Fold:
Amino acid sequence: MASPVRHIAAPLNTLAIRRDFPVLQQDIGACPLVYFDNAASSQRPTAVLKAMDDFYQHDYANIHRGVHTLSQRATDAFEAARARVARFLGAQRAEEIIITKNATEAFNLLANSLGGLLQQGDEVLVSELEHHANLVPWQMAAQRYGLTLQKIPITETGTIDPDDVRRRLTSRTKIVAVAHVSNVMGTVVPIREISQLAHAAGAWMVVDGAQAAPRMAVNVAQLGADFYVVTGHKLYGPSGIGALYGRHDLLQKMPPWQGGGNMISEVFFDHSTWREPPFRFEAGTPPIAEAIGFAAALDYLSALSLDAVAAHEDMLLQKAEAMLRTMSSVRVLGAPPHRAGILSLVMDDIHAHDLGTILDQHGIAVRAGHHCAQPLMQRMGVPATLRVSFGLYNTPDEIDVLENALHDAKKIFGVA
Ligand code: PMP
Structure:
């Protein structure tokens, strides 16, 4: 079920918004493009393209090491972008934001650095609905540091029950790592309740916000997240950039995980000392122009208001769910109490990849596969799903196009 619209925000002017996205102004074959693959990657508005273009044309230089004017300008712009991410996530200070190349790198940083602070036999509690990015690095850390990985199973409806989390927390649990929004079913996980339980048990709360941050207002303090991960290309920004929020006192305790330039305080031939966070976690030249583009994307999103985006995607979700309920041979995965703009479906007797191919012939971009969430697929007993994921530029009319294409697929495959 889609969530009731809880937000009072002026509705999005989708017509005007669509004009901001050049890529949407095209046909695929004979059909207008319907872009429903936003959970994999969203598209970029002109404001982002222009910000990066301007930066490359006028201000580009490497940062932090130069005394010349361009380097100063580039450094200021990069640090302003960090501060922009901090504001977007409700962080207290810019130093709590580490720039990464994507969400995956942020989890690898955490698993390596945070994992190394733990004792053998300590437990990391990870949910069953995680993207591989918030699971595999913890598996690797468990092997390296002698930790134990514990699973939080999902409920029948496809969410996480805080009471179940409470039962699984032990005196050895040191990290609870959970997605804010499932990239497969769109489940909005009750992070606040879970983080309260984690903290009461003395564990740190790691939240995968890759799918939540583009779809709802996020405030790390309100959520009780000790660490919160986002990725630029799902936030209408460039690829090649992500960010990790970390509580400052925790970042200060954490060792670096990659060595090289910029992360050191002093280097001697046989040892080095580290800079303060966030720099100690940013070895080498960072994604500079991408950071400028990322900040422009966050400006764009914030100007529209995340509450308005949430309400818009909720409206689309309700329409899509109502349409799919009337369609025989279609099953929507999960029925969580609160879903954000993503859903997965399976159709009797048609493989998700075949369905995706037919939808493409109607100009519809969707994703078919396991969505890098194989344990969730195993739990749901399906090899693959067709995932429809909305963005701020999608329209209700596009759901009619989807309905028509699904009927067409049924006809082609002779499904009732
Ligand atoms: N977490 C979730 C919930 C995701 O959906 C994704 C991307 N599909 C990731 C993490 C990984 O993001 P990236 O590929 O940008 O590292």
In short: The longest strand covers residues 173-179.
